[in-house]
Every structure is written in C-alpha cells, then in structure tokens.
Design brief:
Layout: E1 5-7, E2 10-12, E3 19-25, H1 32-45, E4 49-54, H2 57-60, H3 63-66, E5 69-72, E6 75-78, H4 79-85, H5 90-103, E7 106-111, H6 114-121, E8 128-130, H7 138-146, E9 151-154, H8 160-167, E10 175-179, H9 195-203, E11 207-211, H10 217-224, E12 229-233, H11 251-268, H12 280-286
Parallel strand pairs: 3-4, 3-12, 4-7, 8-9, 9-10, 10-11, 11-12
Antiparallel strand pairs: 1-2, 5-6
C-alpha cells in the first residue's frame, strides 16, 4: 500500500481523489494576461493546481545555442533573447501568487536550475516538479531535496536505472513519481499506461500520469488504472504559437477531463461487494429464491 503525500492541503495517494494539475508551462508566451486566463480556466474546470516552468536562461541555454536565430511572433531574435522573452520574473510571479490565492487554486513550478529554485522558494510553493529532462541533474535534485518540499519526479525519456538513481536521492515520504512519455504530442501506442503499476509496485510511492497526447480518453484511463494525480498541458487555443501548444488541452476539453476523472473515481468504488439500497426493490421483484 502506498503512503499518501500532502500537497496544498490535499492527500495525494492510493484511494484518494486524483490531484489534477493544469500545466500552463510556457504556453502563456510571456503574456501575464494569458497566464491569468489559463488560471481562470483551470479554476473553473475544478483543477487542484496550475504549474509553470521557471528557468534562468543564461544557465539553461547551452552556449552553442544562445546566438542561434529563431523566428518568433515578436520578430527574429537569438534563442537566448527568446528564452528571456517568454520568462516570467518577480513582478509576474507576485501577481500569479496573488491571483491564484484569489481564485482558490494552488500553483507550483518545474524549476530547471538551482537559481530558479531559490527564486521560487520565497513564494512558499506546496511542492516542486522535476521535469523529465532534469531527472539526471544531480545538482538540481540536491537543491530541490534541500527545500524539504514534496517532489513530483517525472520519468519521461528515462531508463529504470536512471529513475532508481533519482529516487534514491529523494526521501520516500516526500516522493511522487509521474509516468510520462516525452513526445509532443505522443502516439497512444507509446503511452504505456501499464507503467503506472510498474512504478507503484517497485517504489511504493504515489504514482501519477503526465500526459502529452492528443485527446482525453487515455488520461481518464490512467485514473482508472490508479493514477494518484494527473497533469496535462493547457492552452487557450492549440493553434497558438509555441512548441507545447499542439499537445495541450483547450478550455472545453479541460472541463470535460476533470468531469470525467471525477465520474471515474466515483465509479471505481472500494472493491468490496455491496448490495445497494437501489437494488433491493429489483431484488424483491426478480428473485424467486
């Protein structure tokens, strides 16, 4: 039996309602108004939290990529300038913190470097997410562990040995694992949802699902297979500019997803055979012995 981990006042674990995370990431394209609209969508849909990505561009962009030119909606610029263009800083995160509190929804980030962890710490986040790309970043893992906060560790593009090495660094009472396949968007035959049970059986911690597929069915299926939490990228419009938009869910889809997740949870029951009160009149009418 896996132990639950508390995030933002919610127990996340076996037999608990799935913790639903709307991944805003960088789908705001550096526009705070878009970010606030996406927070609104997540709150209206009934999500438990929204998640952003935080980077220190000069640390995260490899030297050989910094001066590469890139076409963007704001003109042609270097890749490093583009990363700064879509990055939120103190003013934006102050407002995100205030706005999420107003809307009654938790927020946290995937930090991509230790400086970003230090930056976000002042907001007292309920947890952190380790992006799949960061699973082997020992310096970052050590800094995140040192915060004492719960860590959701995403396992996309990782071998089992790499996952075991990362898990060994995180205290078990603060560890959650997210099964993922790091393809955007991901084909159904590469989602491998049975990995949820594989991770849960080996590591004994809450296991969830971070999906990058098109559509909603497979995320709902992950809940039916026991995902303690689910995360999907969200967008105002999948046609918007940005690398993650095509694998994201639009507002109407997010509302349907949360609705269907809650219906599936109610339908799963407790695994104990019951004769429900609603069955008794039918039993009395149809049973002859």
């Amino acid at each position: 039996m896996t132990k639950a981990v508390e995030i933002a006042g919610r127990r996340v674990g076996h037999a608990e309602p799935s913790f639903v995370v709307a991944e805003i990431g960088i789908n705001h394209n550096g526009d705070l108004d878009v970010a606030k609209q996406l927070i609104d969508v997540a709150a209206i849909a009934g999500c438990d939290a929204v998640k952003f990505q935080k980077r220190t561009p000069e640390l995260c962009v490899p030297v050989e990529q910094r001066d590469l030119m890139r076409e963007t909606p704001w003109g042609i610029m270097t890749y490093l300038d583009y990363r700064y263009r879509v990055e939120f800083e103190t003013d934006e995160y102050d407002e995100i913190d205030r706005y999420c509190d107003e809307k009654g929804i938790a927020w946290f980030v995937s930090p991509w470097d230790p400086d970003s962890v230090d930056f976000i710490e002042k907001y007292d986040p309920p947890c952190y997410k380790v992006a799949s790309a960061s699973l082997t970043d020992i310096e970052l893992l050590d800094r995140l562990v040192a915060t004492g906060r719960p860590l959701i560790v995403s396992t996309g593009m990782s071998t089992m040995e790499e996952i075991r090495d990362a898990v060994a660094k995180v205290p078990t009472d603060r560890l959650l694992l997210a099964h993922a396949t790091s393809t955007y968007p991901c084909k159904p035959e590469e989602l491998n949802l049975r990995m949820l049970a594989t991770l849960r059986d080996e590591f004994g911690c809450p296991v969830g699902y971070s999906g990058h597929e098109v559509g909603l069915q497979t995320t709902v299926a992950a809940v039916a297979l026991g995902a303690s939490f689910v995360e999907r990228h969200i967008t105002l419009d999948r046609a918007m500019w940005g690398s993650d938009q095509a694998a994201s869910i639009e507002p109407g889809g997010l509302i349907r997803l949360v609705r269907d997740v809650r219906v599936i949870e109610a339908a799963l029951g407790d695994g104990v055979k019951h004769v429900y009160d609603s069955e008794l009149p039918i039993k009395a009418r149809l049973r002859r012995a």
